[in-house]
């Protein structure tokens, strides 16, 4: 015999150390008093996570510490059997004693079952089975006590014995999880009460219905009244026939009439799990046997199945949270939840069980395995759903263990979910959330395979009919009300898609899916506020698909995803183009953490895993492009939604570029070694421009330089005896190809190497000595400005990375004439204005007071003060902040203000529209989005703010660098 104390194990980490310690103090005091301190200390490692997470279980041991001592010292199964015996013995107690006794036994049962569950002693079947057996025992005793009261009151002439129960002819049918021995931890019990009027042993003059209802109410009161000792079980009587118009106890003949005449399919499904649980068990079983033809129809009835599915859709409308994220999810009724697994099983049972009795098991997992054994469910689907069922039921129990509440919802609060995660064995809430989300998606995906939705195909604006060869007048009116400028064009396009004129709807399945998708598309386009733009860009995207079945299925299964995608179509043609070319980018949206803060280390880990599975240089290139596409799309959508600021987005885009180079540079070096042999030397990749300063936006290219140093002069590669310049030139060429060559997975970056010493005229890879010599003797001021943003992103060794960074800093800190530097910067800016004037009001880069002015000011300050130990910062905003006290405060403030505004606008414009975009021509909804990015109320206010901030920035630039004196020079400061 294994005692609980010998078997129990820690369920997970301690969610709340202080709560656990408070519980321990109470228990230590009791243990010291009653001499069980040794047992408590031995069990504490397993108890601490429980009491650190569950206030309810803590309250049970606080009220009666001796109960915990006794349970720890007992063998769980033996103790539970003894508990059932004590529950049955209460049938002989009076009303008050039975009421108190049942509640105390419920507390003991709850504590024992929870500890056996959390401690890994009992599996899910044992847990749910024990909860159900206690419910049955409590019902039986409560019914006997209530019946004795009726006998003593003179309304019964005798009490029954044995199988006929205390009241012959009166019986409880356990429904739902109670009927299937699947009760959850804080479950209600669903019972339907029936009686045989002619069998009830009633005294003369006692009306049968009044008696049956009174007895039912007395039973419910005994079970669910809340006292100082709590309650036993909440009782739900609503699964009886037509509960809105029938009493709580229904005569069996009337019940048969109801089910035979107006019984609905959802009631058939409910009776799959039904079981005679209390009262006259023999007559209860006979009742179910007589009802079997109603439940198990031998003729297949697919129309009935459609009706079953409509019940689920009604639940979704009225009860279910549709989200597939763990935060706030309803584990029972939500999409991908327990209810979907049960419906998946029960619906197939209703179809097949009439002819195949072996499929009639009331228990979900047993029925699932029976369906698998009969070939109706694949082994993989059965395994996935069984695992999901166990995980969701276990999580559901842990949610309920926190406060003994009949809830199935994970909290929105990270702190509350942390408790559930700890009880489930997870160290981190994020890991727990991810596991739940994967499970929900698995279940929802499997459920979607079974049921095609039968939603309405119209809109709240009116009819949407696209059949036949002519436009439907009502549909044109609907489209007009929805805000489409050219309803006839929309109608004709959709009808052509219905007729299979594009690849996405060429197959019958594709057209079937599009029939359901079309009204959702139009509703989503209308909701975007830019229906014409949304539809036009969706048309460009949809018409380019090579196949539409998988993607349309995804959109239908994930309506929130589809709505967001249509918003992207409305506001972001650049992202829409990405989706048209690479629909797989949508996969990232399925991640519940899609809108969480970008975690570069997590992205780095994902990239490393993808690259580790690649075989060869080309596969590495493809793997990097796949990860880049998903993550760049994620950053872009976060920018559009406002979830990511310009600063965060710039860093995220740059971090993603770093991660790509970290993956590809070693592969490029390995390629060079494969072709020419190993080389004794070191190499680093230096990012300049927007990547170096971590200010990248969507579509930014990479300004790079490679720096190398041979181990010794005259060193050559081991196979082809390449010199250092040849070897590292080949490495650089392979790296450029890896970063810029289109593959089957698309493009990555454009690479610009012109910022290296000597530009396009010099060698593609730069030796360490040449770098130092060039920046000491030959480099022009513009090259030094560019070097202020230089950042080592990868090196063959940490030591060489440090050396390369040191060489960059040394070049920048050499003494230079401030006046001459200011004049050079001014000349360069004047030259830019002459040769590359701004393209319009929305040229945020080249306009006076735009990004170039601000960058030049920040870079000039660094060059001017570097020799004196002034700050060096690659990032423009950080550089401006670092010069507080070294430059006029008003000028720095104006530059920072203009920089922040124009960066916010640049990020959104680059994500949505690309280069040289003029948002004036974009839909009003997008202009509103842009105004939000500028932190103003509307587009007009944005233009005013932009003009003002640029004037301030231009003046600040002239204050710092110098005011123009003529067309070719500057008056320096």
How does this model look, in words?
Helix content is 59%, strand content 5%. The strands form 2 sheets. Strands 1, 2, 3, 4 and 5 form a 5-stranded mixed beta sheet that branches. Strands 6, 7, 8, 9 and 10 form a 5-stranded mixed beta sheet that branches. β2, α10 (208-224) and β3 form a beta-alpha-beta unit. α2 runs antiparallel to α3, α23 packs parallel to α26 (573-581) and α35 packs antiparallel against α36 (851-866). The protein is elongated, with a radius of gyration of 37 Å. The chain starts with a helix and ends in a 12-residue tail after the last helix. Residues 309-322 and 965-973 have low confidence and may be disordered.
Q: Tell me what portion of residues adopts beta-strand conformation.
A: 5-15%
Radius of gyration: 37 Å
> What characteristic shape results from the CA principal axes?
elongated
- Treating each run of at least 4 consecutive H or I residues as one helix, how many helices? 40
Query: How many E strands?
Result: 10
What is the CA-CA span between the terminal residues?
Answer: 91 Å
Mean of pLDDT: 89
Q: Give the fraction of residues assigned to helices.
A: 55-70%
Return residue spans where pLDDT drops below 50 for at least 5 consecutive residues. Answer: 309-322, 965-973
Largest sheet: 5 strands, mixed
* Classification by helices and strands: mainly alpha
């Amino acid at each position: 015999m294994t005692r609980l104390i010998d078997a129990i194990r820690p369920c997970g980490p301690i969610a709340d150390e202080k709560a656990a310690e408070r519980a321990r103090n109470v228990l230590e005091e009791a243990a010291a008093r009653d001499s069980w301190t040794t047992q408590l200390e031995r069990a504490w490692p397993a108890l601490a996570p429980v009491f650190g997470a569950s206030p309810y279980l803590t309250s049970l041991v606080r009220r009666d510490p001796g109960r915990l001592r006794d349970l720890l010292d007992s063998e769980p199964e033996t103790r539970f059997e003894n508990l059932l015996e004590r529950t049955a013995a209460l049938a002989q107690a009076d009303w008050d004693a039975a009421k108190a006794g049942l509640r105390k036994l419920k507390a003991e049962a709850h504590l024992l079952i929870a500890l056996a569950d959390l401690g890994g002693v009992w599996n899910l079947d044992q847990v749910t089975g024990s909860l159900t057996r206690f419910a049955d025992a409590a019902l039986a005793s409560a019914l006997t006590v209530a019946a004795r009261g009726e006998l003593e009151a003179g309304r019964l002439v005798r009490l029954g014995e044995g199988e006929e129960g205390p009241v012959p002819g009166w019986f409880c049918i356990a429904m739902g999880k109670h009927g299937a021995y699947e009760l959850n931890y804080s479950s209600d019990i669903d019972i339907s009460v029936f009686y045989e009027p002619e069998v009830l042993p009633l005294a003369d003059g006692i009306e049968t219905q009044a008696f049956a209802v009174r007895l039912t109410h007395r039973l419910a009161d005994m079970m669910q009244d809340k006292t100082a000792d709590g309650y036993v079980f909440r009782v739900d009587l609503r699964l009886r026939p037509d509960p809105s118009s029938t009493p709580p106890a229904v005569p069996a003949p009337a019940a048969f009439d109801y089910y035979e005449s107006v019984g609905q399919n959802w009631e058939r499904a409910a009776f799959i799990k039904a079981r005679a649980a209390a009262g006259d068990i023999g007559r209860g079983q006979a009742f179910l046997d007589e009802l079997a033809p109603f439940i198990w129809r031998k003729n297949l009835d697919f129309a009935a199945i459609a009706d079953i599915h409509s019940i689920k859709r009604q639940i979704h409308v009225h009860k279910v949270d549709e989200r597939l994220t763990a935060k706030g999810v309803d584990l029972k009724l939500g999409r991908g939840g327990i209810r979907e697994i049960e419906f998946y099983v029960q619906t197939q049972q209703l179809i097949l069980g009439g002819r195949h009795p072996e499929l009639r098991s009331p228990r979900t997992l047993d029925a699932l395995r029976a369906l698998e054994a009969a070939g109706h469910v694949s082994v993989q689907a059965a395994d996935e759903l069984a695992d999901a069922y166990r995980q969701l039921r276990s999580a559901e129990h842990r949610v309920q263990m926190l406060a003994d509440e009949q809830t199935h919802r994970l909290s929105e609060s990270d702190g509350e979910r942390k408790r559930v995660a700890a009880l489930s064995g997870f160290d981190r809430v994020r890991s727990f959330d991810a596991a739940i989300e994967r499970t929900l998606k698995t279940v929802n995906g499997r459920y979607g395979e079974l049921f095609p939705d039968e939603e309405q195909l119209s809109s709240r604006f009116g009819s949407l009919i696209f059949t036949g060869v002519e436009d439907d007048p009502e549909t044109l009116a609907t489209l007009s009300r929805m805000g489409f400028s050219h309803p006839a064009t929309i109608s004709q396009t959709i009808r052509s898609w219905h007729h299979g004129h594009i690849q996405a709807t060429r197959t019958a399945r594709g057209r079937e899916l599009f029939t359901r998708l079309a009204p959702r598309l139009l509703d989503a386009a209308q909701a975007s506020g830019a229906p014409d733009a949304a539809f036009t860009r969706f048309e460009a995207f949809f018409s380019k698909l090579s196949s539409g079945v998988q993607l349309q299925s995804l959109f239908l299964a994930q309506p929130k995803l589809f709505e967001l995608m249509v918003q992207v179509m409305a506001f972001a043609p650049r992202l829409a183009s990405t989706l048209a070319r690479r629909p797989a980018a949508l996969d990232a949206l399925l991640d519940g953490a899609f809108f969480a803060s970008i975690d570069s280390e997590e992205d780095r880990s994902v990239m490393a895993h993808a690259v580790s599975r690649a075989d060869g240089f080309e596969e590495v290139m493809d793997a990097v492009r796949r990860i880049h596409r998903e993550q760049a799309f994620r950053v872009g959508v976060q920018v559009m939604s406002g979830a990511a600021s310009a600063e965060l987005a710039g860093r995220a885009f740059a971090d993603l570029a770093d991660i790509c180079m970290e993956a590809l540079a070693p592969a490029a070096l390995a390629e060079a070694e494969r072709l020419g042999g190993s080389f004794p030397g070191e190499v680093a990749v230096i990012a300049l421009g927007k990547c170096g300063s971590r200010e990248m936006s969507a579509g930014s290219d990479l300004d790079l330089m490679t720096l190398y140093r041979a181990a010794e002069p005259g060193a050559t590669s081991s196979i082809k005896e390449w010199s250092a310049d040849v070897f590292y030139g080949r490495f650089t060429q392979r790296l450029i190809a890896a970063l810029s060559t289109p593959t089957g997975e698309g493009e990555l970056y454009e690479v610009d190497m012109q910022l290296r010493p000597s530009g396009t005229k010099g060698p593609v890879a730069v030796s360490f000595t040449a770098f130092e010599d060039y920046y000491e003797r030959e480099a022009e001021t513009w090259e030094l400005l560019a070097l202020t943003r230089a950042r080592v992103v990868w090196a063959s060794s940490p030591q060489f990375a440090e050396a390369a960074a040191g060489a960059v800093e040394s070049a920048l800190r050499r003494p230079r004439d401030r006046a001459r530097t200011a004049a050079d910067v001014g000349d360069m800016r004047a030259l830019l204005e002459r040769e590359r004037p701004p393209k319009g009001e929305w040229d945020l880069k080249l306009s006076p007071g735009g990004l170039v002015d601000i960058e030049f000011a920040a870079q000039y300050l660094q060059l001017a003060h570097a020799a004196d130990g002034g700050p060096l910062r690659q990032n423009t905003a950080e550089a401006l902040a670092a010069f507080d006290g070294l430059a006029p405060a008003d000028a720095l403030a104006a530059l920072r203000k203009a920089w922040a505004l124009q960066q916010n606008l640049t990020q959104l414009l680059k994500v949505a529209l690309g280069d040289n975009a003029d948002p004036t021509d974009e839909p009003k909804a997008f202009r509103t989005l842009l105004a939000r990015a500028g932190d103003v109320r509307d587009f007009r206010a944005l233009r005013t703010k932009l003009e003002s901030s640029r004037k301030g920035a231009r003046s600040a630039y002239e204050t710092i660098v110098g005011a123009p004196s003529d067309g070719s020079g500057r008056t320096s400061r």
